[in-house]
């Protein structure tokens, strides 16, 4: 390729935002060609611009537009909508990245990451325990052991026994449990497979190697570290540990009832000894799993390509071997064994809930001390965003597990009511108590929504007075309906800024109600059948109503989850909506939970970094990195990964950007004021556009003199209040979209290109600036990585 001069070549690399788009829409031309990439993510140009570098004279004074399309990383395949069922795992993974900004508190940072990883481990155990509750307790133990429940269910006939306990070979309780255990074991294996497959498909791309530069200013964010976007070693370790935890949970659910039966007076001594031995090995395996989760966090200071091969291979295999031995042990013939009542699930679910509450409180303590080191008034919930989100993840896990168990119990019981005169006893008492707290929680949410609605109406009235001031030339043509629509759009856009209050209050109420449910379940278990004695009829009726309504709501929520996933598989519009959720929620690497949906940025950020580095090196030209919405976050992350010499050739143009409004407030350790200020100083120039009607994008709000240099005053929206010569038809209220239609966009892009034209250094000789695999960057000591051990 003939090298163009720096004055003749300019590139505008466009990165779209949430929801995705097509290269034709981004480039404004129906004829496009893919210049690099594959079916998942690629760079496109207009057909006429494919060889633009060979014709520099045709592009004097204008950039060559290029579009990076990454929407297939999140919403391209309909089956990915089923990732909605992994929502608790994704939410707890977000909590890892929400820690407050910290300085010189390495141990506390590691403790914070450790607590989040342990919370994620409890969610895996909770999910597998819920599957065991459905398959083992409700189906194989209660329903298959009750002749009235198996009537009309031929698929359970070979597991059932008559009233005297006689039946087929599978009718013994231990054998029924061993067979039913294949369901949660298969679920664990499926999660392992999906995690391994999605890592290979999305996150296996290695980032651009760094080059150490002693003159480079120390970055204030970990996003610029060489190993930040390549967490293969940690994900593999966590995947092995969580898979082993799932198999051990299934083994405990099968082995504990058999061992309890063998310990009865007069039981077989050999089986009793074997049961103790298997229980000991399962406890030892659980200790090893916890040790593996605690032992190591993320390695971000270098590109770590190593893999703990022995651990990754043998930990799940050993747990699976223990499960097979337990299944053989439980399947041993025990003619006098009868399945009565329910399996001891109350202790399991109660223990999980108690551990989760303790971990969330400890996480809140760590976040408090981290926030005290570098307090910032803009940080969401004053640093408690991570603990609040972790609490919501635990609540979502409880809702999904409890809802699934309750719906299956109702289905198996037919027209009866489980535990109240039905054919089976139903799920554990704790799940019923957890269902009873759903109505009061929904009341709190409704009150908060009403309060936000009142505040929004008040703000709308104030904005109606300000709309006319923004259009002074059209004041004589005031239209009350037009003013009301503009003011309403502005008022609703501010709801994003109140989200921290909503999340904080809901998390606190959820924690208190969860503690109350756990206490009520413990009291009910200690005094069965007397929970309502001494209570007034009104109180007892209210409690029963809350439990019944909550059980119905929790089941309805679970059904809506599944239904929404199935609809998204068939409906492209619904699939696009769910894809937007993943665009926001799966930006971060899997640092706390390996079964979370895959991180698309571990593919997108290396794509952008390699493209910018290769183009600037081959042409020596100017480059404007133009990002909209979530694309601006990807653009900032890619700019941090560039070598300093390349970063100084890049101008950054962001619009509708959530960099400070969402990421800066919720993820202050990585997008806080210090990090964004360093980005402004390290790129050649940066301009940010936003509107008052935009519910997602906002100003970057850099401190001091940097703020006006980056943020332009809020753009007018709509461009014209009424009908004008330039806008003879009513101008639309654009909100978050179509920033390129505003004349300010072309004006700011031209200014960035003009500044780059005079400031970009001359191109290096061929081969002088090629990225080398052995180049590394000195890590930033200001914000330590989460590396335990």
From TrEMBL:
Region of interest called Disordered, as start-end residue ranges on this chain: 756-789
UniProt keywords, alphabetically: Membrane, Transmembrane, Transmembrane helix
TM region positions: 111-131, 177-194, 240-259, 274-294, 314-332, 352-371, 383-403, 437-454, 499-523, 543-565
Domain of life (superkingdom): Bacteria
Record-linked InterPro entries: AB_hydrolase_fold
Protein name, UniProt field: Membrane protein
Organism: Streptomyces formicae
């Amino acid at each position: 390729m003939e090298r163009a001069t720096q004055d003749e070549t300019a590139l505008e690399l466009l990165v779209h935002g949430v929801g995705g788009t097509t290269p034709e829409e981004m480039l404004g031309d129906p004829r496009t060609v893919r210049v690099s990439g594959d079916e998942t993510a690629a760079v496109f140009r207009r057909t006429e611009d494919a060889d633009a570098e060979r014709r520099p004279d045709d592009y004097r004074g204008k950039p060559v537009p290029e579009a990076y399309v990454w929407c297939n990383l999140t919403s391209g395949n309909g089956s990915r909508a089923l990732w909605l069922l992994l929502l608790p795992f994704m939410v707890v993974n977000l909590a890892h990245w929400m820690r407050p900004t910290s300085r010189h508190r390495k141990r506390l940072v590691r403790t914070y990451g450790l607590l989040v990883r342990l919370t994620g481990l409890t969610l895996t155990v909770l999910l597998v325990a819920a599957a065991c509750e459905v398959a083992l307790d409700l189906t194989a133990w209660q329903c298959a052991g009750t002749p009235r429940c198996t009537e009309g269910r031929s698929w359970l006939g070979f597991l059932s026994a008559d009233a005297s306990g006689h039946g087929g070979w599978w009718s013994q309780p231990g054998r029924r449990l061993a067979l039913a255990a294949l369901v949660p074991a298969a679920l664990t294996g499926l999660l392992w497979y999906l995690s391994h497959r999605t890592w290979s498909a999305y996150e296996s791309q290695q980032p651009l190697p760094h080059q150490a530069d002693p003159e480079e200013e120390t970055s204030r964010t970990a996003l610029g570290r060489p190993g930040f976007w390549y967490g293969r070693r940690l994900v593999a370790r966590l995947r092995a540990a969580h898979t082993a935890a799932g198999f051990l949970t299934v083994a405990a659910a099968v082995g504990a009832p058999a061992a309890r039966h063998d310990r009865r007076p007069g039981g077989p001594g050999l089986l009793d000894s074997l049961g103790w031995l298997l229980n000991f090995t399962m406890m030892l395996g659980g200790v090893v799993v916890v040790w593996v989760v605690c032992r190591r966090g993320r390695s971000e200071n270098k590109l770590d390509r190593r893999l703990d091969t022995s651990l990754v291979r043998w930990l799940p295999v050993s747990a699976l071997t223990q499960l097979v031995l337990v299944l053989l042990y439980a399947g041993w013939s025990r003619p006098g064994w009868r399945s009565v009542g329910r399996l001891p699930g109350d202790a399991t679910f109660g223990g999980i809930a108690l551990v989760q509450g303790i971990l969330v409180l400890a996480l809140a303590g760590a976040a408090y001390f981290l926030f005290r080191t570098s307090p910032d008034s803009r940080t969401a919930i004053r640093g408690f965003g991570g603990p609040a989100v972790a609490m919501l993840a635990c609540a979502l896990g409880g809702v999904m597990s409890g809802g699934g168990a309750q719906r299956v119990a109702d289905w198996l019981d037919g027209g009866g009511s489980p535990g109240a005169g039905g054919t089976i006893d139903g799920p554990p008492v704790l799940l019923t108590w957890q269902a009873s707290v759903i109505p009061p929680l929904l009341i709190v949410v409704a009150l908060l929504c009403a309060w936000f609605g009142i505040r929004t109406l008040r703000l709308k009235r104030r904005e109606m007075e300000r709309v006319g001031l923004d259009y002074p030339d059209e004041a004589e043509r005031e239209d009350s309906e037009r003013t009301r629509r503009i003011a309403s759009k502005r008022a609703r856009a501010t709801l994003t800024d109140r989200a921290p209050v909503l999340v904080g209050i809901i998390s606190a109420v959820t924690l208190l109600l969860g503690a109350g449910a756990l206490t009520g379940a413990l009291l009910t278990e200690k005094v069965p059948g007397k929970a309502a004695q001494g209570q007034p009829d009104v109180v007892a009726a209210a409690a029963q109503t809350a439990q019944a309504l909550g059980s119905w709501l929790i089941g309805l929520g679970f059904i809506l989850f599944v239904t929404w996933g199935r609809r998204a598989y068939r409906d492209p519009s619904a699939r696009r909506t769910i894809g937007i959720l993943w665009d926001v929620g799966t930006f971060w690497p899997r640092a706390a939970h390996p079964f979370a949906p895959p991180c698309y940025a571990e593919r997108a950020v290396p794509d952008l970094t390699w493209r910018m580095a290769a183009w600037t090196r081959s042409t020596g030209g100017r480059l404007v990195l133009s990002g909209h919405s979530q694309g601006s976050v990807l653009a900032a992350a890619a700019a941090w990964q560039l070598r300093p010499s390349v970063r100084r050739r890049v101008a950054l143009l962001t619009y509708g950007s959530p960099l400070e409004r969402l990421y800066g407030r919720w993820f202050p350790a990585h997008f806080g004021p210090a990090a964004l200020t360093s980005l402004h100083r390290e790129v050649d120039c940066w301009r940010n556009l936003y509107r008052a009607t935009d519910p997602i994008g906002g100003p970057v709000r850099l401190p001091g003199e940097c703020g006006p240099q980056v943020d332009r005053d809020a753009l007018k929206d709509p461009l014209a209040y009424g009908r004008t010569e330039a806008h003879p038809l009513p101008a639309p209220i654009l909100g978050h979209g179509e920033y390129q239609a505003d004349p300010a966009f072309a004006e700011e892009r031209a200014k960035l290109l003009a500044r780059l034209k005079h400031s970009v250094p001359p191109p290096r000789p061929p081969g002088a600036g090629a990225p080398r695999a052995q180049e590394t960057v000195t890590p930033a000591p200001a914000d330590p990585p989460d590396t335990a051990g």
